[in-house]
Design a protein that fits this description.
The chain is an alpha+beta fold. The chain has helices spanning 26-35, 124-135, and strands spanning 2-4, 7-11, 14-20, 39-42, 46-51, 54-59, 66-69, 73-76, 83-91, 103-107, 110-117. Strand 10 and strand 11 (110-117) form a beta hairpin. The two termini are 22 Å apart. Pfam families: Hpr_kinase_C (PF07475).
Amino acid sequence: MMLHQASCVAIEGRALLIEGAPGSGKSSLALALIDRGATLVGDDGVALVVEGGHLLASPAPAIAGLLEVRNVGLLRYPVAQRVPVALVARLDQAAERLPHGPDVVPLLGLALPLVRLWPDSPVLALRALAALARFGRD
């Protein structure tokens, strides 16, 4: 098992792992996706394990169920456990406007698709969902 500093939500049985620098909007994106029906896996810390050729994401035990909502505080949400990671979304101010496709990022020996998303957008959640639909592993 590896603890990974990222936020993560489950969407229709697939996990979207959200990476980015501190303050880049990981928790805000997770909150927006939860508002659209996603389930929290973890915020600012996710437990990852490889099983059966899949990378599974679960809440980090010390902070399970907690989501930081800026200017409000820590709020408690139900969590999903052992969700296969389908896509890594990295919040990045230098994200390409029209990439040729996803990059690949190695995590625990597995190659996962990675998309870079420009974080300062009112439609960031919609772009994350579109990236998951287009590039996410089944």
